[in-house]
TrEMBL record:
Residues spanning the membrane: 16-37, 119-147
Residues in Histidine kinase domain copies: 216-427
Example of a GO MF term: phosphorelay sensor kinase activity
EC top class, as a word: transferase
PROSITE patterns, alphabetized: HAMP, HIS_KIN
PANTHER family: SENSOR HISTIDINE KINASE CPXA
Catalytic activity: ATP + protein L-histidine = ADP + protein N-phospho-L-histidine
CDD domains tied to this protein: HAMP (cd06225), HisKA (cd00082)
Protein name: histidine kinase
Species this chain originates from: Agathobacter rectalis
Keyword Acetylation attached: no
Pfam families found in the cross-reference section: HAMP, HATPase_c, HisKA
Domain HAMP: 149-201
């Protein structure tokens, strides 16, 4: 029984509606037939029996008087007998002549009593009206049953979910266990909610990253500005008194120039970051082996200039991938140049393809990322400026480009505490 109910609930709306209508129709027909049969039986009961007749006896006595009697009897059956009529008065005279007559009972409505006639007409009307009432009631009950069983719950869930979205609340679940059209609709609505939640989360993260980026830039800009202001005040105080040598003045001018260049680098980096959102990807099909061959040749030349051993390992076959090579090169160059700054002797590049994801892992034999950098990598886009004035914007730019290409960029350290940068591109 439970299996049958489950199968019925999983029927499509159209099939479930047809089954409901057919079941209602069968019930209406059965009830109507039973009602008509009952009414016809009752009407037959109300009418006189067509086999009954009136037997009339006419007696004529010697004095010329005549007496008649009427007796209701049933005839037509085998062995039917007429009643024997006897006089109660023993002293009564015997009739001279006795005649018999049979009168048929009129089998019509007009022969009924008023009460029976009313009951007869009522049954006739009931045979017409009650089936109509059954039909109307069946249609209403069928529609109510169909709405309650197949539409009420999912429509209520969808209405509540819509209100939740209007209230900007995406932290809910929409689950309707059915394989009919309403189940598919609820499933699609849930997928839409998940996508909205994902987009909302991404937008929130993007706004949060932008806020943190602006706060980080504002904080880091204070350093070169403070240096320039400090040197300016120092020169104003000491130049008039003639306490500064020419060599000291040149050194101060050099430091001010370096701070000004840092400000210029900050400005250029911020402009580059703002332009990242406007970049349009231009994917092209390219052989994976040809791409890796070009990357290996380019990076080996760069590594040889600083006497760094560059090694690449891959299990990729000669298959085609769809990728924006300019974006890929820009990310790899940023990360590789970062690794060059900290590598001691060698840099390793591991490449693999997992489904539709192209993975790069760049490992250098330097001292690795600091714990502070690793703990803040998901909060800040920018790393702190290093002692040589490098601003660390390359990773920020690379991370944005990876996201635009359907991938990601993660930093970490391996078991040897060497820096590892994992790059994922959707192909």
């Amino acid at each position: 029984m439970e299996t049958l109910i489950k199968k019925l609930n999983n029927l499509s709306l159209r099939k479930y509606f047809v089954v409901s209508v057919l079941a209602t129709l069968v019930i209406i027909v059965l009830l109507s037939l039973f009602t008509i049969w009952g009414c016809m039986s009752f009407r037959k009961y109300l009418l006189p029996d067509s086999n009954n007749v009136f037997l009339k006896v006419y007696r004529t006595y010697e004095d010329g008087s005549e007496v008649s009697y009427s007796v209701r009897v049933k005839v037509g059956e085998e062995g039917a007998e007429l009643p024997v009529i006897t006089a109660d008065d023993k002293a009564a005279k015997k009739p001279v002549e006795t005649r018999y007559a049979i009168q048929r009972i009129e089998n019509s409505v007009d022969s009924l009593s008023p009460k029976r006639k009313m009951a007869y007409h009522f049954c006739g009307a009931a045979m017409v009206v009650i089936p109509i009432i059954f039909s109307i009631a069946g249609i209403l009950l069928c529609g109510f049953f169909f709405y309650r069983r197949k539409l009420l719950l999912p429509l209520g869930m969808l209405s509540e979910a819509t209100q939740q979205i209007l209230d900007q609340n995406l932290d809910f679940n929409l689950r309707y266990d059915s394989e009919d059209e309403m189940g598919v609709l609820c499933s699609s609505f849930e997928q839409m909610r998940l996508k909205l939640s994902e987009n909302y989360s991404e937008m929130w993260n993007m706004l949060e990253e932008r806020r943190l980026l602006q706060a980080s830039i504002a904080h880091d800009l204070r350093n070169p500005i403070a240096v320039i202001e400090g040197y300016t005040e120092y020169l104003q105080l000491n130049l008039k008194k003639g306490r500064l040598s020419e060599q000291r003045i040149l050194k101060i001018a050099e430091n001010i120039n370096m701070s000004a260049k840092r400000l210029d680098n900050y400005t250029e980096s911020v402009r580059t970051l703002n332009q990242m959102e406007d970049i349009e990807l231009k994917r092209q099909k390219i052989s994976a082996s040809d791409l890796l061959s070009d990357i290996e040749d380019d990076f080996k030349i760069i590594a040889q200039k600083k006497n760094i051993d560059f090694r690449i390992s891959t299990l990729l076959s000669n298959e085609e991938i769809c990728i924006d090579t300019s974006v890929l090169y820009r990310v790899l160059e940023n990360v590789f140049n970062n690794a060059m700054r900290y590598a001691k002797q060698c840099i390793d590049l591991d490449v693999s393809l997992n489904g539709q994801k192209l993975l790069f892992a760049i490992v250098d034999d330097g001292d690795g990322f600091s714990d502070e950098t690793l703990s803040e990598q998901r909060k800040l886009l920018l790393a702190k400026a290093s002692e040589d004035g490098h601003l660390g914007m390359g990773l920020a730019i690379s991370r944005i480009l990876c996201k635009k290409h359907g991938g990601s960029l993660e930093i970490g350290n391996n078991e040897m505490h060497n820096a590892v940068v994992k790059i994922i591109f959707s192909v």
